[in-house]
Structures are given as structure tokens and as C-alpha cells.
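Consider today's protein:

***
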Amino acid sequence: MSHIVTVQEAVTAFADFMEPTDAELDTIEREMPVILADVDLLDAQIVTLDRTPTELDARRIRRARRRALAARVALLNRAAGTSLPGGAA
């Protein structure tokens, strides 16, 4: 009979002192539109996994793909705008 034991590192890996920093939370908040757009795209793609996509499904996927791309472009533009001196974009 083998005994099941926990590994100390696995138990302490999620200790209270391992919380995300304020900078990490700010980054997540900035990237949230991209994350949500990617989730919408995945939802649209998952719907079509077990059936032949209809024209409506194809439009939903195209819209979700465009929204995800637009969210990524907006994030990159905001990042580029904050890193360039003098406000030049």
C-alpha cells in the first residue's frame, strides 16, 4: 500500500505572501479588454466544434476576431503612447 503525501513546496506555493503585486494587477487591468475579447473569440469557436458552422456562426467568429485584433491594437497603441517622449505617437 502506498501512502499519499503532500509535497511541502506544493502546499506553500499558494501562501499569502505570493499574492500579485500592484504592478501585476495594473497590468492585468490594462490587458482586460484583450482578455475578454479573446474569451469571446474562443466562445464563438467552441460553439462550432461539434457542428458545421452556419453563416451566422462564421459572422460571429469574424466579428469576435476583429474585436480581439482591435483590442490588441488599442493595447499596443496605449503602450507605445506612454513610452514615447513628448507625446508623439
User: Anything to note?
Assistant: The chain has three helices and no strands. The chain has a mean pLDDT of 85. The first helix runs from residue 8 to 12.
